[in-house]
Specification:
Chains A, B: This is Aspartate--tRNA(Asp/Asn) ligase. Chains A, B: Homodimer. Chains A, B: One of its GO terms (biological process) is aspartyl-tRNA aminoacylation. Chains A, B: Belongs to the class-II aminoacyl-tRNA synthetase family. Type 2 subfamily. The structure is a homodimer. Chain A is an alpha+beta fold. In chain A, the strands form four sheets. In chain A, strands 6-10-11-18-17-16-13-12 form an eight-stranded mixed β-sheet, sandwiched between helices. A five-stranded mixed β-barrel of chain A has the order 1-2-3-5-4. The longest helix of chain A is centred in the N-terminal third of the chain and has 22 residues. Chain A is elongated and about 85 Å long. In chain A, α4 crosses α6. Helices cover about 30% and strands about 25% of the residues of chain A. Chain A folds into two domains: about 90 residues, Nucleic acid-binding proteins (OB fold (Dihydrolipoamide Acetyltransferase, E2P), Beta Barrel); about 300 residues, Bira Bifunctional Protein, Domain 2 (BirA Bifunctional Protein, domain 2, 2-Layer Sandwich). At the A-B interface, β1, α3, α4, β6 and β7 of A face β1, α3, α4, β6 and β7 of B.
Chain lengths: ~425, ~425
Amino acid sequence: MQRILSSQLPAHVGETVTIAGWIHRRRLLKSVAFLIVRDAAGLTQVVVTDAAVRGQVEALTEETVVEVVGTVVANATAPAGVELTGPTVRPLGPPAVPPPFDLYRPALAATLPTQLDHAPVALRHPTRSAALRVSAAAVAGFRAALDARDFTEIHTPKVVASSTESGANVFALDWFGRPAYLAQSPQFYKQLMVGVFERVYEVGPVFRAEPHDTVRHLAQYTSLDAELGFVADHRDVMAVLRDTLAVMLGTVADRAGGAVSALGLDLPEVPAEIPAVHFTEALTIAGAPADEPDLAPAHERALGEWARAEHGSEFLFVTGYPMAKRPFYTHPDPARPAYSNGFDLLFRGVELVTGGQRLHRYDDYLAALAARGEPVEPYAGYVDAFRHGMPPHGGFAIGLERFVARVVGAANVREVTAFPRDLHRLTP
Amino acid sequence: MQRILSSQLPAHVGETVTIAGWIHRRRLLKSVAFLIVRDAAGLTQVVVTDAAVRGQVEALTEETVVEVVGTVVANATAPAGVELTGPTVRPLGPPAVPPPFDLYRPALAATLPTQLDHAPVALRHPTRSAALRVSAAAVAGFRAALDARDFTEIHTPKVVASSTESGANVFALDWFGRPAYLAQSPQFYKQLMVGVFERVYEVGPVFRAEPHDTVRHLAQYTSLDAELGFVADHRDVMAVLRDTLAVMLGTVADRAGGAVSALGLDLPEVPAEIPAVHFTEALTIAGAPADEPDLAPAHERALGEWARAEHGSEFLFVTGYPMAKRPFYTHPDPARPAYSNGFDLLFRGVELVTGGQRLHRYDDYLAALAARGEPVEPYAGYVDAFRHGMPPHGGFAIGLERFVARVVGAANVREVTAFPRDLHRLTP
């Protein structure tokens, strides 16, 4: 008999069916035992009254994998309104060693480090798996949004001969006897591929040898990168980002609705046009001195409150960051060259996405590197391509784990990462 | 005026429109000049008769990025049956330095190493970009097939504390002062995630420090990994693989139809049931000695011919490879324990996919490692998880570049990889 999932049971009332999954919990009452079986779709309550089956259930442990054949009976008090009765239970493996924390409790009682040490079992907890379902749906939405706008997916090297974002925080490795580095971003490659496809995206790992142990930093994270050509300026990029975020959140609602309910999430609305303020205005709104070169976290929080009060928006673009604080490939504002055509998107008062227009002329790259006192040589393979004709272009990068952490309200990005990597953690 | 793509021109006959792209070619005849503009969607022929515009076009170089405003006129001999007349031409950047090879010729005349040295421009050639469009469509199909079958996408660590597949061919790196390795596959992680989601997939880079310089090996490639639980044996995995390949090829036809036409491809049919032969039968069919432990390339070619002649199929499963030739996590055939529940899928007589059923009991892992004289300790974080209840499961991995190379008929995987990495190549 073909196994069915717990979510399919309501369509089989009165029938004998086979389910399979993990023993989530056993409740051994005097006259009856309840076996709660967890599968990918949810929980099934199995009612055990037969003495022999009860004896078998008593001998099994939580997390043992079992197959259960039984009759589907409607019961309004059971999960999804149905339960299985008259079961036969067949273990699909030896009795499991119970995990070091109870997976059947509504919240995982173990500390985060303990959860991370035992990630393969901690991730089975419905709250942890729900966050990863939100993550998978967000990525599917990112791709769907960009596919619909004629972007092409690319895959670029994760090992490079010179660092992409800056000389700091790179992991060095031995590449057949030569020095090499893990890529800190696909920045250069996605720009080069604008020359091929005009519009590209990549979903992939990036690596930062972050010496800081914070709730926001991972040494490997998943970057959702997009880049598009033939833009007038950064505002064309912001419009694509706005639409992408709307589709991402819409896809989370559609594809991870169960997870959204389980976590009790209130998904944010993306306004048709996200309000935008220039960096100089942002300083004024935040009450910061006019000569501040960047926004501090307190400023971002103040801006988040302002956007909600003034525009009813949880999102706020800050444009025109000072050139001095942006990477060398950033395009300046032609009207005010000390400021950039770069932007950040704040979500609930915290930076969520960085993006902007990039330089597209070879001579501008040479000048930008010279102005920073950086040699051209490490960037030659990248910069040279701009001699061969590149359109005005720009793009953005969304850190998947930060995005998901903010959507689900996790205090630490490690709560929404299956197997995080950081300063201290290289296993499991 | 909003720019439109070359593919949209036929809907605008008689109108004045704006297009933009790269100067693909200029043909300067006596009474008329033709400017061929390439954009993401194809080519546009621009007819120049005005002397001033002609002078401007003469001064421009191939690959310069331009914007052209002109009138759309039907012309059966032009690309897509339309051309632009009475144009004004505005460069969107300085004149381009022409690439070291002609992008407008039907085939790229440069050697593959020259193409790879100049990848950012070589990839603009329609044959090279078409192969990458096939690749993007194949990946989209992989995901669509598995999404429809309730698989969940995962993202796993690419830096690990011990090697996954074997001690050889790993890249070592310095992880905050500790030794670490680039992951050779997501094998262990996808198995662990079966314990969470039952069915998972991952699209991501894997790293092999291949000391061999061949047309089939890359040091970084994109692996399409899937793993599913609650299988009876490897045949359930083969059925999912069959359906996945069919959707991948269907999606290539749907989403990369232009590329398929441009490359003149004849996409293979995936039979409703792919024929399968046991390893021992395969040896007989290939005329190999009965004690051969593996199939040589010549055997695979013979099997490919046999499958086509006998079953009219370009695909053939070979099952039951000897355990001695498969990784330690492979599940043996319960009826013949010297043979495995592992399979290879041959496509046109070459191995395309490897997969199989895995061990799912903790004790079996201990025994398998002991039998190979391998210590448990490096695998502890992986093997320990099997104490906590894992269902029978299996999966497969498709090497994206090999798959695409075979579909497009490329002799070298580097022809279908944007920026390949190998023994000799770390740039661009």
